[in-house]
Every structure is written in structure tokens, then in C-alpha cells.
Amino acid sequence: MEINKPATIIIILIVNVMLIFLFVIPKYQESIALEKSLVEKQVAYDSQGEYSIALLKTLKGIEERQDILKKVNSALPGNFSLAPIVYFLQKKAIESQLTVESVTFSGIYEQIPPMGSNKQVPNSSGPPGNDQEIKNIVLMVDVSGSYQGLKNFLHSLERSARIFQVNTISFAPLEFSSPEGLTSAADQIKTYDFKLEIKTQTY
Question: Do 138 and 198 form a contact (C-beta atoms < 8 A)?
């Protein structure tokens, strides 16, 4: 039986083409899809890794700056409480050998807005609101003692972690006092009644 070679070749080619379409091309497309998916997952993994590294660096930076953050929080606390402020002022006054006559809460005032701003500057005698604007807390402190005691008290405020600003100081002489056992005029200490307007801040 004689084989028709051209017909056989055509049949073989047709079979090969069909096999390619049925098996090779789908597998090739599947391989391309898998490769694309792998690349996408690799990119996502790399991005996640970079994000994790950046997050770890940020956390490490925060940990290294804990002392600075604590100082900032002490200087400008976010919660308003009058009692710790009054206690601090009384403690420092006593350490400076001043007698605390009274500490009066004067009010809370918003920071003065920049020039040209139409924003109002309200004030209140109650605690600050929920906004994040810096508020000035003003207290009137009445103490009595020596001039050196006042200097020591002011120095204590300057060294405080919390920001204190003395706006005004008024005074009136009271009397001369002598430390126990000292009676000469040179040893006598003149005492004054000091009235200070002190400002601190919160937000």
C-alpha cells in the first residue's frame, strides 16, 4: 500500500497543531499566570518587609526619644489639672523659704492669633475644651518672705520641666525679721508681700 506522503505530513502537522493548542498553549498561559502571580506576591512581600522595617525603625526612634517626649509632655501637658500646679508652686515657695498666703486660679486664655487673623480670643474660668489649641493658664500667687527667697523661687520656676512664665510681680514691704539668735540690725531680714501673676500652658 502506497502512503501519500504529503497527506501524511499534513495530518501530522494538523495533529501537532491540535496538540499544541490543546496542551502546550494552556500550560504556557498557566505558567505565565503563575509567574505573574509570583511576581505580584514577591512585590507585596517586599513592600510588606520594607513597611515592617520602617515601622521597626520608627518604634526604635520613639523608644530612643522617650526622655525627650516625657520632657515635652511635662512642659506642655495635654490634660488640665489645677491641683498639681498649685502643689508644685507651694512646694517650691516653701523650699525657697517663702510663706504661701494664697494661690488663686485667674482663668484660661487661648493663645493670641497671628496678626491679620479674624479669630477671636475667648477666655474662660473652666477647664480647656477638646480642641488642640494651646491654652494659657493664669494664676495669682501671693507669698511673703525675703527678696532672696523670691529669687530662689523664680529660679526654681525657670528650672522646672513645665513651662512657667511670670507676667507681673508687685510687692510691698512688711517688716524686719531676725533669725533666731541674731539681734543686730545688720542681721535683720526685711520681708515683703509678693504678688505674682504666673502663666503656664496646656492644650
Answer: yes
